[in-house]
Amino acid sequence: MTSVLQAQALGKKYGRRWALRECTIDMPAGHVVGLVGPNGAGKSTLLKLAGGQLEPTAGGITVLGGRPGSTPAQLAKVGFVAQDTPVYAGLTVAEHLRLGERLNPRWDEGMARERIARLGLDPAHRAGKLSGGQRAQLALTLCLAKRPDLLILDEPAAALDPLARHEFLQHLMEAAAEHKLSVVLSSHLVSDLERVCDYLIVLVDSRVQIAGKTDHLLATHHRVTGPRRDPDRLPAGGHVVSARHTDGQSTYVVRTGAPIHDPAWTVSRLSLEDLVLAYMDKRDAERRRVALEVRG
């Protein structure tokens, strides 16, 4: 499997605080990769390191086989859309396109103008007068027209209303398919990832909890519910991801490659959001266990 991004023991420190530490990750090429995790997991820092906007404090990272931001050619391979969809408020749409042409050696003027026309954006309008959805689409157009091999999006639709977010993601899917792009999309909205991503990485405390094709992950994780009992009473061969107990009932999320045919348990499928929450809940449960041990 060809990798588009690899990091080994990667870390970034701001003063005395580590924003990312001991992160080892491998993102495959040719996929729309969803990167998800709680606040403070290090997602934005990782993506900025990948885009060459930050230098690592520790460890190493390669993107498309090179060091991020090391040369103009390397910069040209990567498109980056941040959460605030940065555009210049005082410049018109047309001026943004002219700026993009000057800064990017692989600039596709025809594609940029065609996309702006299809979106219904007036080239004479200043970016500061555009709606949030239009600014996001302009930022995406600037990234796509530079003809990158990798497109990195850090919460690009977080501030958009549902309709604008739907349109942005629809255009993203179309562009990824048409231009055969590798994409990394970070989002807190798992429903967005479920719509567009075919590969998922859950990052918690700088560490990968799980990674794989979304259809495979959903096929190998199950919710099992039954009378309250210890996990050793579960069918053999499964790995318990998370557990919830009430007075008379136990509910587990289990990872297993084999079907569960035990009449003592009710087995149901998980949504992608269920899966993500299970791995985040695993982190919180471990923290609670450690805190109890310390107090004890």
TrEMBL record:
PROSITE patterns: ABC_TRANSPORTER_2. SUPFAM superfamilies: P-loop containing nucleoside triphosphate hydrolases. InterPro entries: AAA+_ATPase, ABC_transporter-like_ATP-bd, ABC_Transporter_VariousFunc, P-loop_NTPase. Residues 5-230 form the ABC transporter domain. GO terms for molecular function: ATP binding; ATP hydrolysis activity. Keywords: ATP-binding, Nucleotide-binding, Transport. Pfam families: ABC_tran. This is ABC transporter ATP-binding protein.
